[in-house]
Amino acid sequence: MKLKNRGFMLITFIMALVMSACSSDGEKNAASTGTSDGQTTTDVPQEIVVRVNDDPDFLDPHKATASISYQMILNIFEGLMAPETDGSLKEGLAESYEISEDGLTYTFKIRQGVKFHNGDDVTMEDIQYSFDRLMGKNGGEKMSNNFDNVASTEAPDANTFVIKLKEPNSNFLYSLTARQSAIIPKSNDGKHNENPIGTGPFAFVKYAPGTNLELKKNEHYWQEGLPYLNKVTFAFQSDDQAAIMSLMANEVDLTSVPWHRVSEVEASYNLSHQNNNSSLIVTFNETKAPFDNVKVRQAINYAISKADIIDSVFAGYAVPLGSNMSPAMGDFQKKGLESMYERDVEKAKALLAEAGYPDGFKTKITVSSHNDIYSNIAQIVVANLQEIGIDVEIEVVEWGIWLDRVYFGRDYEMTTIDLTGRASAYEILNDYISTNDSENFFLFKNEEYDKIMADVLKETDQAKQIDYYHRAQEILAEQATAVYIADYQIVWGSDKQVTGLKSYPFWFHDMSEVKFSN
């Protein structure tokens, strides 16, 4: 899975893919397109069905937490800034911006003529409302910690929005994309979840829980010529094997393909490999004994075989990790940590004995049912830990229960999940800050780590930022905060006519440039 400002994933890293799809009457609407000589011809159908593992947790972008939600709803919403596929940022609803020399004042010029899906113009009042709502002003509930450093916001004129910070923050612009701060209309207050309205390339049509989410083309989208698709349907199907059958039956146009079934579809469908930029982990509630003992956590790190998981669960489509950062992050990743805990059963037993558990102990690993990989990983964990005397019970729960009990409620002993990748190194690592109550579901606490993550925001030199991030990753490894297993690839199967697929360093099925070609 993946969750919001931190993130979880349901399948990691990011991209946008899409394919042809059937309408309710079993047929697709043909799109009319212009030819080079100016004549209009009937092209292939421009409707798509994209299979995703489960329902969104919220359609309200300010409340959504799971990355699976953002895969879909980022097609509806936009922020002042927008992501690029290489992890950088570009202007979104902001046409341009300036940052003051002291790094405290951000001035945005807002695009004129942009409309919400309901036909209303985007105004300064809407932008102010969106940030006030996120910050919990005007008596509302605070929905994000990203803006705790904001001193003030103001709109000096009809197309200028100014944000002033209390302290410089080298990561602040990353808080201004739709994933963190979607711009939504004030007129829709109280109805953002049941009737979401944004400015993105696709507008909400309907949501059928347990079945699908349907979007339609925004005919008045401000980016001229986009989107190409008339309709996007996200179909919810948790079973990977059933999803392959749906693909073969032309019931869906895009789905992830289980690694062991690639050979069955590679001849008839386009296959693409997506590096997730995520961290698949087995982790602990560090406030519960015996996981409050670092030697116990280290023993489990030595006992669990990353190679077994990579080979058995992912058929080799994965790269081993040693921290919460993927090689996809380039220089920001601290290399070499993946070999810190080479499997050593005897060393694991010795550490358990030193921790006061020479005969092991009993525990439980709670996993979500929304993706088979978690149960498959849990079975390997059980077998590995039996070798050092740890008796692990597997508890499989529905996705919503996992979110409520494990992620939000912190009511668990062990779990496995994959943490969603981000374009920002800071956002990848800030889950572990002790004061990050909304995302630190491990309940990890380390003073040196907290200081590093505070200091890096004040550092403008990227080389020095990298040094900070490297040390932060070393702490996570030394403290065995989790068993960092792998960043695994997703293999996507799609209709051969689909073009315009894009990948991002976070989960996003970007439909804006996707189309079916002859």
From TrEMBL:
<comment type="similarity">
    <text>Belongs to the bacterial solute-binding protein 5 family.</text>
</comment>
<dbReference type="GO" id="GO:1904680">
    <property type="term" value="F:peptide transmembrane transporter activity"/>
</dbReference>
<dbReference type="InterPro" id="IPR030678">
    <property type="entry name" value="Peptide/Ni-bd"/>
</dbReference>
<dbReference type="Pfam" id="PF00496">
    <property type="entry name" value="SBP_bac_5"/>
</dbReference>
<keyword id="KW-0813">Transport</keyword>
<dbReference type="GO" id="GO:0043190">
    <property type="term" value="C:ATP-binding cassette (ABC) transporter complex"/>
</dbReference>
<dbReference type="InterPro" id="IPR000914">
    <property type="entry name" value="SBP_5_dom"/>
</dbReference>
<dbReference type="GO" id="GO:0042597">
    <property type="term" value="C:periplasmic space"/>
</dbReference>
<dbReference type="InterPro" id="IPR039424">
    <property type="entry name" value="SBP_5"/>
</dbReference>
<feature type="signal peptide">
    <location>
        <begin position="1"/>
        <end position="23"/>
    </location>
</feature>
<feature type="domain" description="Solute-binding protein family 5">
    <location>
        <begin position="90"/>
        <end position="421"/>
    </location>
</feature>
<dbReference type="GO" id="GO:0015833">
    <property type="term" value="P:peptide transport"/>
</dbReference>
<keyword id="KW-0732">Signal</keyword>
<protein>
    <submittedName>
        <fullName>ABC transporter substrate-binding protein</fullName>
    </submittedName>
</protein>
